[in-house]
Structures are given as structure tokens and as C-alpha cells.
Amino acid sequence: MTSDGEARPLQHLDVGAGPTIVLLHGYGMQPATYLPTARLLADRARIVIPDLFAAPGRWTVDHVLDCLELTLDDIGVDQVSLLGHSFGGGLELGLACRSPARIVECVFSDTLGMHREFSLAAEAVHPLGIVRMATPPAVRSFSKSWLTHPIHLAAAALWAFRSDRVSEIDVCASVGLPCHVLWAERDTILSRKDGQEFARRLHATFTVAKRPPGYGPIDHDWMFDDPELFVQHLNELGLRALPAM
Questions:
Q1: At 239, is the secondary structure helix, strand, or coil?
Q2: What integer is the mean pLDDT of 5-17?
Q3: From CA 186, how far away is CA 222, in angstroms rounded?
Q4: Which secondary-structure segment (H or E) carries 101?
Q5: 8-37 b/e (C-beta count within 10 Å ≥ 16 → b)
Q6: What's the average model confidence in pLDDT over 107-120?
Q7: Which is nearest to 209 in space by CA: 228, 29, 197?
Q8: E strand or H helix at 51
Q9: Is the pTM of this model over 0.70?
Q10: I need a labelling partner for 156 at 20 to 30 A (CA). Which of 93, 124, 145, 173 fits?
């Protein structure tokens, strides 16, 4: 646990019943943004969405991972599946490395991969990419997060760009956790090649979203912008937490 003693369970949304899936949200997002997706799964699974930027005290990755472990204790589950989106996938890696015995499986959606610092910045802060993915739900969520937790978000951004995830990827691969990587057909924020290399190093499956006939572009935030399509792809992974319908 953290040396400052401030770690405690995170505020979280909790919907549905069944095997527990902990959903770790993207950078600047709010748990409520993912409720449409969670409700589509709630007839088969319990979906818990912690607020990753509401951690008490100073935001550091170790502190937030401490809080996440306490959250798992608080909700009373020994075994969970993890579903991380974008920035949340980086925390998912850290949590899986810390507590592999508690993790049933991992799903990473358009997540932080091998790239870091300048190569990651070239992807993630490209102005045209940001404009293309600035849907109303994302803008509302991002604005609220910056109003309520600006210092936490600044610290989290610095960690996301500077952290070297390679060692955590190797640890997860070595313990044999079942892992899957889902990728938007047109992710305007993160590189598909980096996602593929991330999946290869993780020994994970890699799936690019299939666009139905007549369907518009599928971008970085499809987990909550296109919840029906996202859940369809989740179902096809054969996850232990999602019994066949």
C-alpha cells in the first residue's frame, strides 16, 4: 500500500449481476460515460467502473493501483475480469501484474501500448485526430474531469507519456493471462501498428472492429460511442465473464 496511508476504495458505478468485470475508463473520462455499454452487459455480468481520477491525495500510478486493489476488496470479489480503454489499459496492465491470481482475463481496447514519450505524443495529441474523436459524450466527460480533478489529470498525463510499459507487458505474458486486444477500424489517436505489437508481445489476440454495411467510421472511443457494436465484438471473444447468450 502507499506510504502516505491515503489509499482507500475508489468511488465507482456498479451495475448488473454475475461474474465481475472491472472497466477502467479512458483519460479524462467519467465512469458514467460507459454506462450504455455496461447496461448492455448487465444481464450476464456485474460491471464495476471505478473513478480513476477521484483517488485521494496526490495522483501516482502506484497510489491508484493501491486504491484499485482496495476497491476489489471493498466490492467483495476474489476473481475479476478486466476491461481497459485507452489510458485505462495502462492501469489494467499494472493491476494485472500486481495481482495476477485475482485476474481471470484482460481485454484492452485501443490502449496504451509500446510507444511512449515523443512517439506516443505524435499519435495522441495530433490535432486532427482529437477533433475527429471529439464526440459530445467525450467532450462532456473530459470537461467535467478537468473541472473537478485538473491536478490529477496533469499528473496522469505525465505518467502515460513517460512510463515504460514493456516490463509489465512481459510479466503479464509470462504468467499466461488470457488477453485480448480490440482496435477501432479507424483509430485517429493511437497507432494500429503499435496495438498489434502490443498484442504480439502480450501473446494476446488482436481484433480490428468490423464495420457493418453502411456503418460510419469506427474511432478511438467506440467503446462508448458505439456500445452495441463494441459488445458484439466482446461477445465474439468468448470471455469467461460473458456466458453465451
A1: coil
A2: 93
A3: 10
A4: none
A5: bebebbeebeebbbbbbbbbbbbbbbbbbb
A6: 72
A7: 228
A8: none
A9: yes
A10: 173
